[in-house]
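Per your request, structure below.
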């Protein structure tokens, strides 16, 4: 008995993922279709769940390379608890923690600038300073 397969269009409709993106996942080794005699891609019925897992991991901040390393550890309910899966997920969390810390630093800097702006005297027409009539031409400096 032959395994039930879905074509790329059917997989796209079932997952909401564009065929072009599904082909990209294939290029990255995340999806492995078989080719029918007519050359069409045929995906196993489990590909719907696999695409959902890929999308979830992408949304979590993992790269397609990291997802490719993690998918062999996938089980029906999650991932095998092994050193490799723990490292991939841990590295992803560390990277996100670094990004969060950097965003917090940037927010603090911008909040300081906001405080400076708010403490400055109110200017009812700030655009007047930038109008063409208030901009002086730069002249060449004679040496």
């Amino acid at each position: 008995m032959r395994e039930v397969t879905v074509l790329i269009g059917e997989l796209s409709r079932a997952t909401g993922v564009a065929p072009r993106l599904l082909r990209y996942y294939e290029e990255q080794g995340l999806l492995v279709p078989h080719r029918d005699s007519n050359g069409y891609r045929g995906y196993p019925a489990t590909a719907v769940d696999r695409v959902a897992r890929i999308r979830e991991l992408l949304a979590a901040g993992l790269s397609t390379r990291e997802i490719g390393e993690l998918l062999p550890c996938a089980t029906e309910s999650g991932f095998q608890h092994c050193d490799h899966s723990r490292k991939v997920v841990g590295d992803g969390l560390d990277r996100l923690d670094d990004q969060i810390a950097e965003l917090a630093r940037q927010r603090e800097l911008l909040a300081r600038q906001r405080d400076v702006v708010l403490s400055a005297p109110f200017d009812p027409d700030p655009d007047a300073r930038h109008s063409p009539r208030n901009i002086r031409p730069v002249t060449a400096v004679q040496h």
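The mean pLDDT is 86.

Regards,
D.
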